[in-house]
Give the backbone structure.
Amino acid sequence: MNNESNMGKKHIVIIGGGFAGINIIKSLDKEKFDITLVDRHNFHSFPPLFYQIASSGLDSGSISFPFRREVRHMKHVRFHMGEVKSVNTSAKTITTQFETISYDYLLIAAGTTNNFFGMNDLRDKVYTLKSVAEAIRLRNEVLDRLERASIAKDEDEKKRLLSFVVIGAGPTGVEVAGAIGEMKRYILPREYPDLDKEDLKILIVEGADKVLRTMSEDASRHATEYLGHLMVDVKLNTTMVSYDNNIVKFANGEEVYCETLIWTAGITGEHIEGFDKSVFGRGGRFIVDSYNRVNGFNDIFALGDIAYMESPQYPHGYPQLAQVAIQQAKCLAKNLNIGEFKKKFEYKDKGSMATVGRNRAVADLHKLHMYGRPAWVAWMFVHLISILGMRNKLTVLINWIWAYCTYSTSLRLLIRPTKYPYRRHWDLAKE
Ligand SMILES: Cc1cc2nc3c(=O)[nH]c(=O)nc-3n(C[C@H](O)[C@H](O)[C@H](O)COP(=O)(O)OP(=O)(O)OC[C@H]3O[C@@H](n4cnc5c(N)ncnc54)[C@H](O)[C@@H]3O)c2cc1C
């Protein structure tokens, strides 16, 4: 790859093609900048629907979009698949497992990864939902357990195989617990005649005193009710302290047996070597000013989930949401395009939503609070328009209509990756 930018044009390197990365590419002036997008995957994905991959509601291809296709008409943009390991801020270079690339401006939009709050052994034991690969891993595990439980002769063995605990009752935890609850309620009786739906237990555990704690009281109350409808047990004011030999231990001394632990309780900024500790704030995020400039730098910016920006309204930093990433991308592009830092970032909160099975969702849209079917329809509309690619939008819509009419999808395929031939450099990927 040619690391030199064209005469007079500045070279921008963007780490991460998530919501922030992909949106800033679209807004930067092609006459002023050459851009290299670096991502460890060769596709953009849509995290809000990862839980539907995990519950076999959608296939991964319908919520992912190849970067090369997205930038194919942008002659000023190059794509490099690789994982950025380090940044050399003096030499102005980034290094992946494959090569070193120089930049004039560096935009860090690498998002977040799972945070196990010091319980690092959990990484090897629990299921997470921070990437498409992690969602597929969970889907395979759920399907494998249903198959094994169907042929288990011992009743206790069936129950052990079908014991699920979700840690964290934010939107991701609630949505994944609800989706497994839907499988229990609607799929098991139809397709698994050897299983009694009562054998499958789902427990969702939350440290706060309500589910969806960042949403309104009403949203939380309705979501708890919907989880009950899907036969999901809810445990509040409870913190997990360990998970060993399939026993989940809580701070209050209680213990629960569980063979599939799904962790949605915490995130931390993706770590990239080469920076002093002083640039990192809460949650391992880069401290930035209201123009997204990383503390102490004029040529390095962080945006989206990995950026920690305080404001009077958000003294603990902006929430890690898609809208914040998209709006920061647009604001930073404006400043870079004019070559001056004039426009401070201001977040326009468009509200939040979560869905708990078919026909049931909650939405807080400023003063408007919606529940049940109207919220569910609004939720589907918002997600459909946000997915990249017309083919993807149509595929998702058709899948949803089909699932709504038949209570089922034909996506419950357990396709395991093969180990050989072994590719050593693939180990460098996080998953
Ligand atoms: C399961 C789930 C559900 C969610 N639901 C919602 C929702 O309903 N509504 C909402 O607003 N938000 C939701 N979010 C949050 C939302 O997805 C994030 O706020 C948003 O994705 C942040 O965008 P970003 O561009 O900062 O990071 P991301 O979208 O996470 O993108 C980061 C990109 O950087 C790449 N990357 C990371 N590290 C490296 C590296 N070292 N080298 C190269 N590439 C790298 C990754 O591959 C990825 O493509 C959800 C998140 C998850 C995980």
Residues 120-265+351-406 form a domain with the FAD/NAD(P)-binding domain fold (CATH 3.50.50.100). The two ends are 26 Å apart (CA to CA). The first helix runs from residue 19 to 27.
